[in-house]
Structures are given as C-alpha cells and as structure tokens.
Amino acid sequence: MLNLAVFGSGRGSNFQAILTALHQGKIPKVAIRLVISNSSSAGILEIARTHCIPAVHLSQKQFSSDDTYGDALFSLLEEHGVNFIVLAGYMKRVPARLVGAFRGSIVNIHPALLPKFGGAGMYGMRVHEAVLEAGEQESGATVHYVDEEYDHGEIIMQQRVPVMAGDTPGTLAARVLAAEHELYPEALRRLAAQGQEKQ
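User: That's the sequence. What structure does it adopt?
Assistant: Structure tokens below.
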C-alpha cells in the first residue's frame, strides 16, 4: 500500500487529478494521508481540506534552521504513516535528508520530455517557452524519481503531445497539463501495483 504525502505549492490540479482517479477506483493500493504546502494560500490545501485530508502549511521560513525544519517534516510524515511522497507542482527543493530517507519513494512530474528542458530554473512557462524556442515538434510530461539534482532521477513514465503550428507557451502548457493529469494517476497505479512502497 502506498500511503502518500502530496507536496504542492500551487492550485493543485495534478493533486485533483490523482484524487479523482482514486475516487473512481482507478488507483488501488494508494491512499492520500497528508498534503503539505510551502504556501499558506495554495489551492492544493483547500482541495485537501474539502476532502477531509490533513493539510498543512509547512515552510522553511517558519523555522530557525534546516535541521528544525527537517525534524518537523519527518515528524509530520511519521505521524500520518507516510511511506511515499508525490511532488505535484512543488516549487521548493526537497531537503537532501528527505531524499535520502525516501530514496526510490519520491516522485515528481515535469512538464517536458526529460532529460530535455529540465534542471534548475526550468519550471512553469519557462519550460514551454524553451520548447518552442528550440523548434521542437513534440513535448509532453515526465514522471520521475526524485534525487539530489533537479529533474534528474530515473524516468518512470512519459506521455508525449505534439507541438502545433502557431502554439504559444500558453496553448502548449494547456496541452501538456492535460497529459499530466492522465499520466500521474497512471504512474502511481503502476508503482502501487509493482509494490514500490518504502520498506
């Protein structure tokens, strides 16, 4: 059983897609135990609360040191029985201590076909602008394991979308986001079926 903590910084559309798939019975052996956001006004927290899922605003800025922040984070995860972490639009670097403790049990989704258009600074519209500037004929979304480098961990699944003539960063972003909403629940379904829970 994958007992998830979902980390997000924004409106939570990928979280909502996962939640919808869960409610439709499409992701067996998965439960969402906790949602964490570094932003107190993030939409992802509201979605979680609407569905009676524990939702916590937790930011490094609330703590005097990285160690006390890490302690609070680990305490929360332990309290809620979390054994797998899903990053869904989380705009902060995951502490190396957490990556080490949950190695092979943290995943992220990126709005491009990694290893292209990933790395530090490659997020949001910047990704889609870079894809268009490079003259790519396709883009897509990638679910990958998280390691100590941005967008670097082993790729789990990808879904491709075409780049259309006349695309803007906004139109491409919308097409990629729709692919993300299909891809992330399916990737979690496969991971759960493979028994990828943290030992």
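The helical segments are 13-23, 43-50, 66-79, 96-101, 125-133, 169-193.
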